[in-house]
Specification:
4 copies of one chain form a homotetramer. Chain A is an alpha/beta fold. Chain A has a domain at 7-116 and 186-230: Class I glutamine amidotransferase (GATase) domain (Rossmann fold). Helix content of chain A is 23%, strand content 31%. Chain A contains 7 helices and 11 strands. Chain A has helices at residues 17-20, 22-27, 32-41, 62-66, 84-95, 110-116, 211-224; strands at residues 7-13, 46-52, 70-74, 99-103, 123-135, 149-159, 169-176, 181-190, 193-198, 241-243, 249-251. In chain A, 61% of the residues are buried. Chain A binds chain B through residues 95, 108, 114-119, 121-125, 127, 129, 157, 159, 161, 163, 165-166, 168, 178-180, 188-191, 232, 235-243, 247-249, 251, and chain B through 95, 108, 114-119, 121-125, 127, 129, 157, 159, 161, 163, 165-166, 168, 178-180, 188-191, 232, 235-243, 247-249, 251.
Amino acid sequence: MNERSPIQVTIYNEFVHERKDEKVQAVYPDGIHETIAGFLRQQPDMQVRTATLDQPQHGLSEEVVASTDVMLWWGHMAHGQVEDEVVERVHAAVLGGMGLIALHSAHYSKIFKKLMGTACGLVWREANEKERLWVVNPSHPIADGIDRYFEIPQTEMYGEYFDIPDPDELVFISWFQGGEVFRSGCAWRRGKGWVFYFRPGHETLPIYHQPEVQRVIINAVRWAAAGGRATVTGIESAPNVRISPEGVRQID
Amino acid sequence: MNERSPIQVTIYNEFVHERKDEKVQAVYPDGIHETIAGFLRQQPDMQVRTATLDQPQHGLSEEVVASTDVMLWWGHMAHGQVEDEVVERVHAAVLGGMGLIALHSAHYSKIFKKLMGTACGLVWREANEKERLWVVNPSHPIADGIDRYFEIPQTEMYGEYFDIPDPDELVFISWFQGGEVFRSGCAWRRGKGWVFYFRPGHETLPIYHQPEVQRVIINAVRWAAAGGRATVTGIESAPNVRISPEGVRQID
Amino acid sequence: MNERSPIQVTIYNEFVHERKDEKVQAVYPDGIHETIAGFLRQQPDMQVRTATLDQPQHGLSEEVVASTDVMLWWGHMAHGQVEDEVVERVHAAVLGGMGLIALHSAHYSKIFKKLMGTACGLVWREANEKERLWVVNPSHPIADGIDRYFEIPQTEMYGEYFDIPDPDELVFISWFQGGEVFRSGCAWRRGKGWVFYFRPGHETLPIYHQPEVQRVIINAVRWAAAGGRATVTGIESAPNVRISPEGVRQID
Amino acid sequence: MNERSPIQVTIYNEFVHERKDEKVQAVYPDGIHETIAGFLRQQPDMQVRTATLDQPQHGLSEEVVASTDVMLWWGHMAHGQVEDEVVERVHAAVLGGMGLIALHSAHYSKIFKKLMGTACGLVWREANEKERLWVVNPSHPIADGIDRYFEIPQTEMYGEYFDIPDPDELVFISWFQGGEVFRSGCAWRRGKGWVFYFRPGHETLPIYHQPEVQRVIINAVRWAAAGGRATVTGIESAPNVRISPEGVRQID
């Protein structure tokens, strides 16, 4: 129980904005993935790799995916460029127990939409307004270290209706200065995999440098590692089974 | 409230077994879709059409789908032959408010898997054993007319683990003589659409002739019609919105 | 299906403020219960009675409770004066299928806390600020007639953390001008009974005169009537059962 | 993260059967609580105490409850003898973050019914029949170490309808030889506390000596310890709050 091997984390970032736009470079000079990797690498129980769109198979080869416990996903402009074959691979890995943390505009990524089964639309506005994330599930491990709420001083707004299946667990609801609310921290189980959507993040605002945001992401990685420990076997298939002589079922 | 227009029902059946196999013909001489259509047509609040795989666009043209309130789906051998374009059309219709009732082996249909986001596997056995469906949500409209349980004398077994997202509402749990259990009546909302999975049914057993099974399907059609009455607009899109002068959000 | 008998509605109001405080009288001259009764009585499918704290058994005798399909509950200052015997009676009725709609400060009523099993605390502020109720479950019958959100111009604030069990269905989330959010429309099933908590309402503000608020309450009454139609028997007891000769369970 | 202090476990047992009935003594010579304590004491991360009905305050004084992380509850014949004051104390502790594991006939204990808000009835039969517990949530920590199902060779039957609120997480569904099913492993959050109901157990059958049953209980203790780590403050109260000068809420 206490001596698990480190959590193998892979951070996918499309890494497009950061090379094109000076404003993004100023905030995330090595890319959003490297900022996130930076604070995750300081956790003694995590080992961290990164992957980007321009790499072969977007850095998400069979070997990488098979050896990942928790994947983080950031995408925005280039969702459509992610190859379907890679999406299928990541999807199968989640069902098999890999954790997935979808960040901010990853609500519109192929992998998130495939896991949700819905269109995942929302309303949005860029006005650098204030956001407050309220805890509505106070003993959830992902809220560990957070009191009643925390604030992001300047943010892009995402508003309801957010077209997702009802979360299995709703952890945060955001308040925005301009008048909207949003289910900002949502958890689901899909197959054996544990999935978390976390709203905060923006390419031109230093949101991933904020300690509370980092804390939530660190918590989420630890939480999402749970699926990989599942001991139930064979759920990917649809086996034909028979009744054993004494009326007991056996898998053939 | 009391004078709604009739529920427009479309029953899709792949209609393959019934033409190939005498045993199936003996039970469902005009196809499973016509047996189901038969008892639904006796409901004064329903108007019923059918669609089959061999028709152009599988009988599910834009006009048909757009004018359907609730669709029932039966498929077994030929899931792979359903065109992706039709699946996309039905999926969009569900998100927009059309009800969908997936029957028995439709757990493995493209449309059901797309709505669930999981692999939808299960274990199974054909031993003509007894099944009991226990009500675990006694005031659910879909259980109307059923007491604590009902029995199917001979059935194909479907067993857990059933790889689905946790249902929003679990209505029936099945017991099987050979030792398995199954979440046999499961409800979800996806977008504005209400989705129900109902396990009973088999091509060579007269399950759709059984009054309790018919009752549940009739209830489910009425229940699933709810999504189409939704008055919230624009959830399919991701609109950019602005803050109005007095601090009030408006959709542009 | 179409010709149900009218829904028997009973509105409980402690009716204390309205007799003591001129400001409350100005807004609700005959009591909050009469304002609510007024718009419910205009519904052809509803028959409406009222009950107040000062009546014998608070107007909630066995006969009244037994003949009620849906009860609305308003209380604020005098929760502690409601007799436990009456609370037990209402509780048993809910488990047996009576609907219950808890309004505003009824979050702290004995009956609501007993049904929830939690302390039902929240934070609050009286600053006559603006509230917006966002629909997060767009096809829910209780949101019928509402578009993406509606506004209450001046309201008392209720904020998270609201100490309730996770709702079975979350329909509305409120945004408040001062910086809070709140789960303002929450649905649960308890036994056969359907329970809805609806946050808006205040004794000195004309909130129950507002058309959108009235619409939601009317919808909620129709929705909550469902439990009374349940056909499953005997769930109040814990019967001993035996195995019948042919291996079939029977209730003795 | 890795070096938590031990989980403080308190096992309550009414300890009535074991002193009256030789058959119970033969299976649980020192009482059911000591059998459970025995396997929990072998866990290096747990410290275990016991409490019984006949002790002052049933062994559940303020000091004991305040220093408990997870409480297990066994009761059967003597639910009515548990003092309401102790029930209130345990209830408040659960809302404040203490875990509670209700075993078998504890479904009818005062504390479980108070947390659920329902009558918690079920059907039952003593026929020493076979039970199978099927995993329906394969990556849940409480199912760790279990494959698709496990069997109890001889058991008392508990059947649906089990009158509980829909579980937040359903982990096990039981199959019984005589024809029933039961939601046998159910999890809820109440306040900050995590609650688990686990069906297996009987006073005259050696169920708590069975390794799989012990494994589930050990898992459940670790899982239920989570609530005590919550960092959100003040949810027990209903504080009045004000808007700060810069439009920011503060708790007074």
